[in-house]
Prior knowledge:
Layout: E1 5-8, H1 16-26, E2 33-38, H2 43-54, E3 57-64, E4 67-73
Amino acid sequence: MNFDKEFDASGMSCPLPILRARKALMDMAAGQVLKLTSTDKGSVKDMQAFADQTGNTLLASKEENNAFIFYLQKA
């Protein structure tokens, strides 16, 4: 999937992946896509809730090499 910005939150525990995603999205234009990588298992539920609460779209998520990859599109 194409993305405009990437952030690696590997090794960070909740709530840091969400806080860093929020900060990264603030600098992006509407419609741009953020790729976020996290190793925190809680981020799977947290990222969907974050997208729902902020109006951003969680385009895709997958698990790869013991990490969770999320693609968020800024509203």
